Every structure is written in structure tokens, then in C-alpha cells.
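Hey, can you fold this one?
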Amino acid sequence: MAPSTPVARWRPSPSSRSRSLAARRPRSLVARLATAALALAAAAFAALPRASALSGGAPARAGYGSVIAPRPGAALPPAALPPLPLWVRNRSADVVLDFRKADPKYALDWRYELAPPPDGSGGGRPQQTAHVPFRGGQMPVLFPLGHFHGNVAVVRFGPRLVAAVRKMYFFKTTRAAIEGYPAAPPEKKGHEALISWWGSSVAVCDLDPRTLQPAACADFDPRPWSECIWGQGFEGTGVEDPRLIVWPGKGLYVMFGSKPWPMDPTGARLDSAGTACDGPWAFQQFLMRLQPYGDDGGARRGELDPDDPDPWARGIVRLSYLAGDAPPPPAPGGAPAPLLKEKNWNAFVYKGRLLFSQQFDPHVVIEPYPNGTCARVFETPGRAFRGLPSPPRGNTQAVLVPAAFSGEARDYYLGVVHAEAGRAYRNFFYKMQAHPPFRIYAASGAMPIVGGQQPRNPAWTDVSFPMSLDLLPDTAQVLVGYGSGDRTPRVLVMPWEDVRALFVKRGEGADGFGGNGGGGGGRARRRRD
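Sure. Predicted structure:
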């Protein structure tokens, strides 16, 4: 890994007064010291080496480096729509997105076939079985379900409204269907001995700004590698939860989650050692440019140039962050080692530099380098989230809210986190400083979005998951793309005054996070994923 970047630690100072008050009266010693400390933190951050100036990194392993050439052949849909105004202005609307016409792969082809009866006698009734592609062939599956268009991200990029939607499907397989898969523990019998799969695919689409409905979609899976195998009776497959990131001066990027490649990417070794994940990470985030600024919208993803002077335009960047630079300790008693997953990072751009909120209590800010290595640059307490029913996790890109737009004394970033409350998700806006050390100083009441029942785990009766947040200054609104119940993609257009009111009303619930069932008591349960 690249040398670690120094971590600037910050102790929160008392709230400073507005500029107007400061102009009227002499500033106190505390205020002057706080201002000096802020200046030192900003200067320390500015002095850190810029990511664009770094190259190299960890040696390439398993046939892939940290920047991977994407699989060619898929194109971002062309920008054929004129820049028409949004159909809804200055009011709230929650729109269900209908992908039936725009997505050429709206329905999943399970490739049903008639198989001989299980007794092999030639008599009896043939069984209908489903198959999915796997390792260059077709793998028989049991109990297929889906797929469902669910979590969706929606942003404005130039004159376009661009969406990325996750499609989820579920099935089970026998362990014998996968060569080299570990046998089930003796205590697991019947269905418990099967492998449970969560599958995902992604489509990138243009939306019609007159209706907010999809107009044209294309499949998105740029990965040239085969996935590793966890070997623990639960597997994920495919591209997950695409976040669209608008990076001013560079273009439109997508960050997606995926299993990395196996230790032996050639596929020659199908034992547990060969198919295990490369490195300690079982699931990671990957970053890729979809579209640069100034293009007409028809550029192909496969045309990323490995010799581009911009290191962020050369391919797929495998983002790697591991606090302490060591894998987690093995589980006691010979149990399977815990799966280390990195997900739910909130991106934001500060003075042209891409940063991520990697966790929120405490708030850890990391910076990625072009080789994929991420270094921690700031850590501040997450007191704004105290009282949530479970630790907060990330959802969307945090967007800069100018003071002239918000009516507040200073600029700040607005983002979204979620927390589990019983068998439900609750989602909250937060405010973050627009300068180092990026302290999160306020959290809202729960967002008024529609939850739904998860199709694979019906016990989760109220699930909602925001994927994008966009500021619409021309109409004084915010645009939130989210999934309801992992099966219904929706877009919320919300007046700015309603967003501000959620911060004012916080505290009405028993736990300080009112609205939309904001408390949901009880201790946090194990995550769905």
C-alpha cells in the first residue's frame, strides 16, 4: 500500500458567530483561537499530496492491478433529450419509476428447462428447473425470485437527468453445483445446507425531465474479472448499488460494489484456495468515469485510455481502505473468518478533490489515490447521530449547499445516512462543515420517504434506501433517488423548506429522531446483508 497520509485530528470548538455579528463586536479569544485552528486544519489538508500527483501503489496480484481496463462493448445512452424544465416545481412529489419500456432487460430470463424426473426412470412428470450463467456455463438453481428494479440513483449532469438502477434477484443452489465448494456443517440439514444467493445487475438510463421516467437504458457491468467465492453458504453476485458522483471539472463517475477477483483469476484452481477473494476484502467499492464534461453523451465506457493524463480516467479503480492495515482476526472455535466488506461510503468533492465519509460515528474522512489506496485524513466525533437506534451508515453523495441558497451563515454539505430500527430502515439528512475537518454538526428527523417489504426477507417490512441526492437551485428543491423495499425505484422531489423543517422538528420523537417512525426502539438487529 502507498505511504499513509497524516491524519489531522480535530477537537470540536464552540460554534463561531456569524460574519455579521463578528463585524459588530470584538471577537472573543475563544472565537479567535477557533478561527486560527480552522485555518491550521485547512492549511494542513491543503499541504497533503494531491491524489492526482501520486502513482504506483501495491504490486499487482492475481493478474490485475489496482486500475483495471473495463470490459468494452457497452455504451452510455446518448443524450437525445432537449433540456426541458422539470415538470414539478416548488412542491413535493414522490414518483415511481417505470422501467418496462426503457430497459431492454426489464424481465430476467431464468432459462427454464424441462429436466428428467429425479428417479431417472423415464417415467413420471418432468420438472421445470431454472439456470443462471456461471463460470462460462449454466448452473441449475432452486427457488428463483425476481428480478426487481430497486435502489436507484438520479443526478443532473449538464442538460441530462441520468439514473443508475440496481436490479435484484434471489435463488439457491446445492453445494455440489459448484466445484470445490466447502461442504455444509453437520448441523445444517435440508434447505439450510443450500447456498443462498443475492444477485444484482445494473442499468444506466436517461430520464425524461418532463416526467422523470426512464427514456433509454443500457446494461452496466464493466468488470472483466470473475468473482471470488466466499464459501460460507451465502453468496452475492453481480454489480451492486451504483452511486452516481458528479465530480466538477472531471465528469460523471459511478461507484459500485462488487466481489473482487479470486486468488487464481485464471479459473484453473477451483478449490477453496484458488477461488478465495484476493486480499482480505470480500466486497469492495470500485470507481469508474462514465462521462467526461464536454462530451455529447455518447462516449463508450470501453474507450477509457490507460495513457490518459488524468489518472482518474484510465479505467476501473479498486478502492481499498483497511484501518490498521491488517485483516480482522479469525473467528474463535474454527468458525469461518468474518467477511470484510467495504460499502455505503458517502462521496463529496472539496476544492476539486474527491473524498469519502467512510464511517459516521466517529466521522472518518478518507481520500482515494489513483492506485486505489485510500488514506484517512480526518476523524471527528459523530455526536450529531447520538440517539439513533443503530450506528449510521452512508447512502448518497454529499452536496455543497451555498449560504446564499440555504439562508444560513455559511456554506455546508448536505448528505444522507440510514439506521436500522427493528426490522426497518430510517433515513436522515445531515449537515457537514464545508471545510476541514468536515465535522458533522446536525442531523434531521427521519426523511418522509416510502418504505416497503423486502421480497427475500419478508420480516423486513419497512425498507427504504436513498442512493442519490441532488440540489436543484433553480426550483429550490432537492432530488432524492431511492429504492423502496428493494423492489420499487422512486424519486422524491422535495422543496427546500421541507428539508429545513426536518432539522427544526428533530427532537419530537422519543429518541430525538422523529418522523417516519423515526425511533423504532429495540436494540439493533443483524443487517440484512
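The domain at 47-326+339-505 is CATH 2.115.10.20 (Tachylectin-2; Chain A). Let me know if you want another pass with a different chain boundary.
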